[in-house]
Design brief:
The complex is a heterodimer of chains A (325) and B (335). In chain A, a hairpin with a 2-residue loop joins β10 and β11. Chain A has helices spanning 46-54, 80-86, 98-101, 108-120, 124-137, 143-146, 156-167, 186-203, 214-220, 238-243, 248-255, 294-298; strands spanning 4-15, 18-30, 35-39, 61-64, 67-70, 73-74, 91-94, 174-178, 206-211, 223-228, 231-237. In chain A, the strands form 2 sheets. Chain A has a 6-stranded mixed sheet, with helices on both faces. In chain A, strands 1, 2, 4, 5 and 6 form a 5-stranded antiparallel sheet that branches. With 325 residues, chain A is an alpha/beta fold. Helices cover 33% and strands 21% of the residues of chain A. The chains are: A alpha/beta (325), B mainly alpha (335). The A-B interface holds A 54-56, 80, 83-89, 92-93, 95, 97, 100-106, 114-115, 118-119, 150, 152, 163, 166-167 and B 231-233, 235-244, 251, 254-255, 328-331, 334. Chain A: Keywords: ATP-binding, Cell membrane, Membrane, Nucleotide-binding, Transport.
């Protein structure tokens, strides 16, 4: 049984000007101990699908799915009270902005011990010992002293370490990291990614890494899911994805990497992600795709098979002659 | 922290001087003349008028009178009342506990209802409870306080006979008042039923005086909560699997309290002003009623001294509020 199984997940937001589909028919599987990266530009729905899993979406969102299960629990039709026993315990999440994700009115120690009390029921002494242990585990120096610090007294990198310590406090089976390094310095980014990879290795938890940074993906992930405008357009193991991308969007993303540039001017993807009012009738990427024809513009392509990385494309790249014929 | 307090105390000096000037000028620009009021209906001869005027110092130029007043104030001497001949300072502090007791009860009443109401309204934003509560709060805020008081008296004292109409305690009870707070003194007296009587007298004035602060606190709590509930750290708390009660009541409310205690601090000024009407209606022997009576009597020292002391109270309360910011949200302490 996979740790995480998502089938046909869609999320719609009610806005003043009608419904907006942020996540569109996404399938996703994940095994225990795996590192999955979800990549895509801003607005591609990568965070929203994971927030739906956590049950953290605002009330304006409607979540529909054929299946949304984690560790044998059906998270789609779960009662709020039962969900709170899983979320923060077996299923944890860290966020993009460590500075604003911690409550400014309470010490970081208080905030970490709170989770230990409600999920594990530890007493005061045990909580303190566990909090010190966790701070050591995530590489916070002088943990005894740091526990009584307020978030504003710590740096961004330290706060992200606190967030990670808080997330792994109850030894989760799956940790979702939503752009954990975007708000941090480059040197700190590498430290945090190393920390997450080490923790995954030591604890055997699964790790979902949401990012728009292909460099982070190449360094950390095992499997990559590429999302575009709410749809999953391709999924492959990391090596294969970088070597033979099948969806033109993945290809264009990789071409835009500075490391891969062959010309003086970096290639870009023209245009922007379609919004609420300019959603194309056919393939969502067709307005920006250099290979698109009339068929692409009128008919939405269904996902291909595993050998083609589930690419949603009529004319996948690197397909040899098998499909084109 | 100590530096902060000292620097805040320094800003008191210009405010204090301004308040002395305004309170001094306020009573003098009112039409009327204390000596004529003293004379009553019989009138007074010109010689006697000049004699009294010289005796009280009113024949001297304004700046000289102000200087004399100011030097007196700085030495802790607010002058004596024309009517009772007692020092203003003594009169103020013999009456102030009554006002303070009423104001504290009104504030506790307003906070005890206003904070939860605001939180519940924010959590149920847009739903029936929210709309009903906020409309009620608007009505409470807009209601003329004397009309509301009379309405309550008619219903609860007149029709139902549950509460007394005026005063602080039944005439049956008599005991010394070392603290001036009727609730404490009635317990200390050990007389049976004294505390209940004091509470029954306190009930309606508390509701009347607390209504406007209640409405303000409820609305302010709601808007502050709405803002805080959208913050990232609330999402973090939910991601930790915390219960909604804990998230709203601890994580969010503590952050929302900053703007709320600001309006609570500012309400104290309103409360003392509101006390004038409330005390007059319920014959509550506090400084509000004392001030009104003194204005009618053109009792210059009492009005200017009383205004000054009330202003100082408000300043002290607001300083306390500023200190509370740093305790509630340590991030503010740094700035």
């Amino acid at each position: 049984m996979p740790l995480l199984r998502i089938r046909n997940l869609s999320v719609d937001f009610a806005t003043a000007s009608g419904a907006f589909r942020a996540v569109d028919a996404v399938d996703q599987d994940m095994e225990t101990g795996e590192i999955l990266a979800i990549v895509g530009e801003s607005g591609s729905g990568k965070s929203v699908s994971m927030l739906a899993l956590m049950g953290l979406l605002p009330w304006t969102a409607t979540v529909t799915a054929d299946e949304l299960s984690f560790d044998g629990h059906d998270l789609l039709n779960i009662a709020p009270r039962a969900r709170r026993k899983i979320v923060g315990n077996d299923l944890a999440m860290i966020f993009q902005e460590p500075m604003s994700s911690l409550n400014p009115c309470f010490t970081v120690g208080w905030q970490i011990k709170e989770a230990l009390r409600s999920h594990l029921g530890l007493n005061r002494k045990e909580r303190h010992a566990r909090a010190v242990e966790l701070f050591e585990q995530v590489g916070i120096p002088d943990p005894e002293k740091r526990l009584s610090a307020f978030p504003h007294q710590l740096s961004g990198g330290m706060n992200q370490r606190v967030m990670i310590a808080m997330a792994i406090a109850c030894k989760p089976k799956l940790l979702i990291a939503d752009e954990p390094t975007t708000a941090l310095d480059v040197t700190i980014q590498a430290q945090i990614l190393d920390l997450l990879a080490d923790l995954r290795r030591d604890t055997g938890m699964g790790l979902v890494l949401i990012t728009h940074d292909m460099g982070v993906v190449a360094e950390t992930a095992e499997r990559v899911s590429v999302q575009y405008a709410g749809q999953k357009v391709e999924e492959q193991p990391v090596g294969a994805l970088f070597a033979t991308p099948h969806h033109p969007y993945t290809g264009a993303l990789l071409d835009a990497l500075p490391e891969r540039a062959t010309e003086k001017k970096l290639p870009t993807i023209p245009g922007v992600v379609p919004g609420q009012f300019d959603r194309p009738a056919g393939c969502l990427f067709s307005p920006r795709c250099k290979f698109a024809n009339d068929k692409c513009r009128s008919t939405p392509p269904p996902p291909l098979g595993a050998d083609m990385g589930y690419a949603r494309c009529f004319y996948p790249l690197n397909a040899n002659e098998r499909i084109a014929s | 922290m100590l530096n902060y307090v000292l620097s805040r105390l320094l800003t008191f000096i210009p405010t204090f001087l301004g308040v002395t000037l305004i309170s001094f000028a306020f009573i003098r620009v009112l039409p009327g003349d204390p000596i004529m009021v003293m004379a009553g209906e019989r009138g007074m001869s010109d010689e006697r008028y000049a004699e009294l005027s010289a005796q009280l110092g009113y024949d001297r130029p304004m700046y000289a009178q102000f200087w004399e007043y100011l030097t007196g104030v700085l030495q802790g001497d607010l002058g004596n009342s024309f009517v009772t001949k007692r020092p203003v300072w003594d009169e103020f502090f013999s009456l102030f506990p009554a006002t303070l007791e009423l104001s504290l009860c009104a504030m506790i009443f307003a906070m005890a209802l206003g904070l939860p109401a605001g939180v519940i309204a924010a959590v149920n934003r847009g739903k029936f409870f929210d709309r009903a509560l906020m409309s009620t709060a608007l009505v409470g805020y807009s209601m003329p306080i004397f009309w509301w008081a009379l309405l309550l008296i008619i219903v609860f004292s007149g029709n139902l006979g549950w509460t007394p109409v005026s005063g602080r305690i039944d005439l049956l009870y008599y005991f010394p008042d070392p603290t001036g707070f009727m609730l404490i003194d009635s317990i200390a007296s050990g007389q049976k039923g004294a505390l209940v009587s004091a509470l029954r007298h306190l009930l309606l004035p508390t509701i009347v005086l607390g209504t406007i602060p209640l409405a303000v606190i409820a609305r302010q709590t709601r808007s502050a909560m709405l803002e805080v509930l959208g913050e990232d750290y609330i999402r973090t708390a939910r991601a930790k699997g915390m219960s909604p009660g804990r998230i709203n009541g601890i994580h969010a409310l503590r952050n929302a309290l900053i703007p709320v205690i600001t309006v609570i601090g500012l309400s104290v000024g309103t409360l003392l002003a509101g006390a004038i009407l409330t005390e007059t209606i319920f014959s509550w022997p506090g400084i509000g009623k004392w001030m009104v009576d003194s204005i009618f009597r053109r009792d210059y020292p009492v009005v200017q001294g009383g205004l000054l002391l009330i202003a100082v109270m408000v300043m002290v309360v607001n300083l306390t509020v500023d200190m509370l910011y740093g305790i509630i949200n340590p991030k503010i302490r740094k700035r």
